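Entry 14. Structure prediction run on the chain below.
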Amino acid sequence: LAHPPAWAVDLAIPRDIDPQAGQIDGVKLFNVDDLQGCAPSREIPPAVEEILARHQGQFYRWLNYKDCLDALEELKQAVTERVCTSRELEGETDPAELVELAVGRTVDLLAGGLSEQWTARLLEQCCMNIRAHTRGRAVVNREGEQDESGESEAPALPHVP
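Output returned:
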C-alpha cells in the first residue's frame, strides 16, 4: 500500500486480516479480542428509559384496544338489544336505528377514554350481564309497538357506521 491506513479493525471470526499487517510501520491492527475490554456501558440513560416507557405504554394501550375491537362491537350490539326492550321507545321514531346510532357513538367515545382499563374478557362479561337482564323482555318493534311474541332476544340490527 502506498499510504497504509493508520489502523485496521478486523471484526471477522475467523479473522480476515493477516496478523502480519499489524507489523507494518504506522499500522495498528485491532481484532475482536482486542476490543472486548472497550465495550460501552450497558446502562440505559434515564432520559432514554423515560422515552421508552412512554412509547411502550402507548403501544400497549393501542394493542389492548385492538384486542378489544371485536368485544366492543359485541358490546354495542348487546347494549342496543337492551335499550330496544325499553318501554320509553314507543312512538313514531324508528327506535331501533336511533338507539343503535346513539349506542354506537356512546360506546366508541367510552372506548376512546377508557381503553387502557378494558380487556376483551371484561367486555365479554359485560355483554353476558346485559343479555342476562334482557332475556324475556318484550322488544319494541320498528313501529314503536311492543312485540309480545315471547321471543327471548332482541333482533339483530343493521350496523350503523
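The longest strand covers residues 7-10.
Filed with the rest of this week's runs.
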